[in-house]
Amino acid sequence: MLSQRRARKHDICLHRRHIAVLFADLSGFTKLVESVDPEIVYAVVRPLMDELVSLVRAHAGDIQQVLGDGFMSVFGLRSQRGDEVAQALQAGIALASATAGQHGRLPVHVGIECGEVLVSPSWEPAGFAVWGQAVTLAKRLCDLAGPSTVHVGPRAFELAGQGVGFAKPVRAHLKGIAGEVLVHYVNTDEDREPVRAGRSNRLDIAPPSGLAVGDHAATIVLPLADLRSDAGTAASLAS
Questions:
Q1: Across the chain, what does the average pLDDT equal?
Q2: Which of 27, 40, 106, 111 has its CA 20 to 30 A from that of 148?
Q3: Domain map of the chain by residue range?
């Protein structure tokens, strides 16, 4: 395995490339970590992260890094067929839809943008790093997005937005980005059946069967307001 990673790193040389960048994070992760033992966090989050990473790879994406509750992925790094941005948008909607409306699973929020970046070798497991405005913008868009929502940057929407005809436009102020940015967003949970009365202000997470650690063997209750507070910290919407 180590030799394979070294080989991949040697294959990467410093160069520029047009790619799509996707960031995905779990809403409510911080509250979950504060509420339960780490064994339960692992049992809840790890299978979900494995599922999300598989979705990205199914859409021809490469995972650049995984950091606890989220990851960065790129499309079009190793080969380009002209559909890299469309693949990223399809992957983003698949990610946000993976847990939308599902009882007991942490929602996912996503940010996507594309553009020319600098690709470099890296000491990280993926063996590569990418540098450029598209990376920063995709991260800020992910921070802006609420649970089960995908935010698409202006360049990515221009190139492949026709495949997401139900996206809604909004102008946003993003941290570190000058001026307003035209963002298109898709909330994959909007068209689903509303949560039953009396359950609309919480997310219940039942620990996996057979796992009882500390005082947290019972159902974990996370207020939905806390899930939403995980996003939007790096931006504000302009009406």
A1: 80
A2: 40
A3: 2-238
Instruction: Identify the CATH number of the domain defined by range 2-238.
Output: 3.30.70.1230
The answer to whether the CB of 92 falls within 8 A of the CB of 141 is no
Q: Report the interhelical angle of 84-97 vs 38-58 (nearest 10°).
A: 150
> Would you list the DSSP string of 113-165?
EEEEEEEEE-SSTTSEEEESHHHHHHHHHHHH--TTEEEE-HHHHHHHGGG-T
pTM of the complete model? 0.79
Q: Which two tokens stand for residue 10?
A: 């040697």
* Tens of pLDDT, residues 90-112: 999 999 999 988 877 899 999 99
Torsion angle of alpha carbons 146, 147, 149, 154, nearest 10°? 30
* Closest by Cα among 156, 177, 181 to 75: 156
Q: Which residues contact 85 (CB under 8 A, 6 or more apart)?
A: 20, 75, 76, 114, 156, 159, 160
